[in-house]
Amino acid sequence: MGQTSVRRAMGIFESHAHYDDEAFNDDRRELLKKLPESGIEYVINVGASMESTRSSVALASEYDYIYAAVGVHPSETAPLNEEFIQYMKDEALHNMKVVAVGEIGLDYYWNEPDTEIQKKWFIRQLELALDVDKPVIIHSREAAKDTADILLSDDYKNLRGVIHCYSYSPEMAERYLNAGYYLGVGGVVTYKNARKLVDTVSMMPLSRILLETDSPYLTPVPNRGQRNSSLNLPYVVDKIAELKNVSAREVTDITNENARRLFGIQQTATKKLR
Question: What is the distance, to the nearest Å, from the Cα of residue 187 to the centroid of all Cα atoms in its chain?
Fold first, then answer.
């Protein structure tokens, strides 16, 4: 008989976590050792400041299953400078474990720093993503119009990426989906007050959803209020499966494929039967 490749069952792809956060200082190594043993196949550790971007790169170099995104969160852009942009460019171009630019965007909740500073560095980091041909991980909080006006303009029509922790309307979601973006869905989908997100997940194709936690934040029910980790993603999987009327296995497999497609990560193991 000829050879037949059989794809192995996929684990969960965690597309947005912050394991460099101080919340994990006491047990980081133990937890990161446990994740692959608990069905977490891949993790993207996402930069949110200049310091955490460097930490994310370091984590990715230490753990085979962890990849890094380089970027500065809008609330951390005040000290950002061109020297650090060059550092991120070098990492994105030459480090195979760096797979995205993010998290970048606009956050008007605290309105710090000034919105014009946020916009300046959002645009600069979008240009960086174009330069290095990497997908973007977008943070947008109470800045729906300005984010969409920038991101969906002709200047950035060739970008690809994910809207992290999607929180806007189903109508806005359609604009992003039509532009080719994925939407990140995490613990918020399990909350009783998450009507907009539930409606969005219900209407959108599973082929455009990425699983995420934003660990250590946004822990799903029934563990809301505790420190979050990728170990809680099965609760998110189950809720999405319920909303889409499919199996948890299908949610896990398809979202894994989605994330690997976006971030350019190849599944490393297949079985061959003779």
Answer: 13
